[in-house]
Amino acid sequence: MSKAQETREKILREAAALFNQYGYSGSSMSDIMRVTGLQKGGIYNHFHSKDELALQAFDFAAECMRQQYIGALKGKKNAVDRLKAMIFVFSNFAENPPIPGGCPLLNTAVESDDAHPALRQRAQIAMDGWRTLICKIVDKGIAKGEVRENVEADAIATIVISTLEGAIMMSKLYGDAIHIKRAIAHLHDYIDNQL
Fold first, then answer.
1. Tally of structural domains, the chain
2. Hey, which of 13, 47, 97, 98 would disulfide with 64, CB 3.0 to 4.6 Å?
3. Distance separating alpha carbons of residues 155 and 195, to the nearest angstrom
4. Proportion of the chain above pLDDT 70, given as a percent
5. 171 within some domain
């Protein structure tokens, strides 16, 4: 990796953590300069604007999350095991998220709802990827006879994602991982009894 690539990755990593903790609106260029240790010109050498940096920093954060799922799914063949592996990834997110500040998808979706359409679109794309992955797992499980035929894949995706993201929000709000632990236990029971 070249020096320029290393610098660019450092900016993305640090900006992703900053935006995830303080939000796009709550993070100034001075803050970005402080966390990266670079001057404004050094940052603008790699990104034309704060908006461009925010979009790419979100993509970086979303990819960090995606890699967590991919790692958890390795070696898992059964649909139920694959869903539980994805859920397990979240067991660490409340206390040890891949990007400081919690789930970047949740944080970005809430912040960008009305204020930043391009960032909102990126969050939707990331969410679509997560939903699609869950739907593929369920549909493949139906085809292999591991999941009941009458199960609606997109409904499972909605329930799993909403439960996990809501539990992450509560765990962060109260500073207590019990909420994510309860949600994970509930989802395991739901998957065992409904699929």
1. 1
2. 98
3. 12
4. 99
5. yes
DSSP state of 63: H
The domain containing residue 56 runs over which residues? 50-194
Q: Is residue 42 one of the residues assigned to a domain?
A: no
Q: What is the tens place of the pLDDT at every residue in 64-117?
A: 988 988 999 999 999 999 999 999 988 877 677 888 888 898 889 888 877 789
Which of 78, 73, 195, 90 lies closest to 144 in space, CA to CA? Answer: 78
Mean pLDDT of 161-177: 92
Asked if residue 91 is part of any domain, the answer here is yes
pTM of the entire predicted model = 0.89
Instruction: Enter the tokens of residue 26.
Output: 């709550």
- What confidence tens digit (pLDDT) does each residue in 5-46 have? 999 999 999 999 999 999 998 999 999 999 999 999 999 999
DSSP one-letter string for 134-179 = HHHHHHHHHHTTSS-TT--HHHHHHHHHHHHHHHHHHHHHHT-THH
